[in-house]
Amino acid sequence: MGFFNFSGFKKAPSIDMDKLTQGVADFFALDTADVSGWISVNKGDVIVAFPFACESKWSGLREALNALGITADNVQFTTEIEAKKALKPRVPGIKNIIAVASGKGGVGKSATSVNLAYALMQEGAKVGILDADIYGPSVPVMLGNPDSHLESDDGKHMFPVNVEGVYANSIGYLVPSENATVWRGPMASRAFQQLLNETRWGELDYLIVDMPPGTGDIQLTLSQAMPVTGAIVVTTPQNLALADAVKGIAMFEKVDVPVLGLIENMSFYQCGQCGHQEHIFDNGGGESLANKYDTQLLGALPLDTQIRQHADAGKPLLVREKDAAISVEYRRIARRLSLNLAMLGDKDNDNRIPIVEKH
Ligand SMILES: Nc1ncnc2c1ncn2[C@@H]1O[C@H](COP(=O)(O)OP(=O)(O)OP(=O)(O)O)[C@@H](O)[C@H]1O
Questions:
Q1: Which of this chain's residues are annotated to bind ATP (predicted)?
Q2: Are 138 and 168 members of one domain?
Q3: Is there a domain that residue 10 lies in?
Q4: How many domains are there within the chain?
Q5: Domain for residue 23, yes or no?
Q6: 92 CA to centre of ligand 1 in angstroms
Q7: How far is the CA of 264 from the centre of ligand 1 (A)?
Q8: 107 pocket-lining for ligand 1 (C-beta < 6 Å)
């Protein structure tokens, strides 16, 4: 026995770090250079800190690593989402603001925003949703609490509502919707700023902002009024909707907000009986639009009764039907979105959207 007793110290990890890095990179179809910064050793523990929300993939990754001979039981996985660059100072506590926009009304932007918020949460992120659709707030209905009122501890700040783990605020909780519909642009914009800045959001990885439909002055003003880190455009496959989605992409480009991707909603009809998929409007419009404008089609969601029923009944689909195929698809879209955001560089000219996830 020597002078020191080392028995209280952990042994250095017997893990081949190069192999681990390669294994993680391969699993997510990324380069080793992309993932090497995620891996560290702390007091004998090997830690992989994912900068994007992907918790549902962790068990599959462990298996893949085990198959490579890496005893992944000795590797800890955590989620550490970084705050990305925005053109305005960050709202304290909120790491990233993601604006969800659409060129046209009624394409399912609010339903998509709500479902993505839960999908990101289920993948391990802390998530809030802000209903910026001042003129037609639908988030309270979709969360099943249209009659809720907000609490305040000082008569100035508001506590968001917490529905099954997602924090939310909406003008719908503050004034009857008929009052807001007559507001002019500046008033709507002031109300929005108040909802954003005077809500006690706590610590959030992502705040999803459900924008008002369209690409006019009010949408432009709101985009500039908040420190957005990235945007998503929701569209349906009809030509007219796609043409309006282009305006959405152009709007964000104008205000220097990176577009993280497109989502094609009501993309096809899937027969509840036989599973046959029918592309009622055209097929492939979202994909070719994404290619043309150098962004990514994050996913295509069907026209589906489950989506409508849960949204309209205020029962979050992803919580109530966690394992349904459609919930799995929302989580896949959420991981892509989150990865795209994590891969944004800090500089304007360093925005690389990665290729498609393999799993
Ligand atoms: N994929 C879908 N399948 C079936 N119904 C859907 C789907 N997406 C949305 N819906 C339904 O379509 C209606 C409109 O959706 P939603 O309110 O999300 O649209 P929106 O684009 O936010 O509209 P607006 O911007 O005009 O407020 C809702 O009843 C919603 O439940």
A1: 103-110
A2: yes
A3: no
A4: 2
A5: yes
A6: 31
A7: 12
A8: yes
pLDDT, tens digit (0-9, with 9 covering 90-100), for 181-240: 666 677 778 888 999 999 999 999 999 999 999 988 888 888 999 999 999 999 998 888
Residue 2 annotated as lining a ligand binding site: no
Cα-based torsion angle of the residue sequence 75, 81, 82, 85 in order, rounded to the nearest 10 degrees: 150
54, 103: one domain: no
**Is 176 in a helix, a strand, or coil?**
coil
pLDDT at 182 (0 to 100): 61
What are 95-142's pLDDT values in tens digits? Answer: 999 999 998 888 999 999 999 999 999 999 999 999 998 878 899 999
Pocket test residue of 266, 267, 281 for ligand 1, highest count of atoms within 8 A of CB:
266
- Which sign, positive or negative, has the C-alpha torsion 248, 250, 252, 254? negative
Spatial separation of the C-alpha atoms in residues 43 and 29, rounded to whole Å: 29
For residue 271, what are the CA distances in angstroms to 195, 278, 302, 304? 41, 8, 10, 9
Q: Are strands 39-42 and 45-50 parallel, antiparallel or unpaired?
A: antiparallel
Place of tokens 């003129």: 135
Question: Which residues form the domain of 334?
Answer: 94-350
Q: Is residue 118 located within the same domain as residue 180?
A: yes
Question: CATH number of the domain that 310 lies in?
Answer: 3.40.50.300
Atom of ligand 1 nearest to the CA of 309: 31
Structure ipTM: 0.98
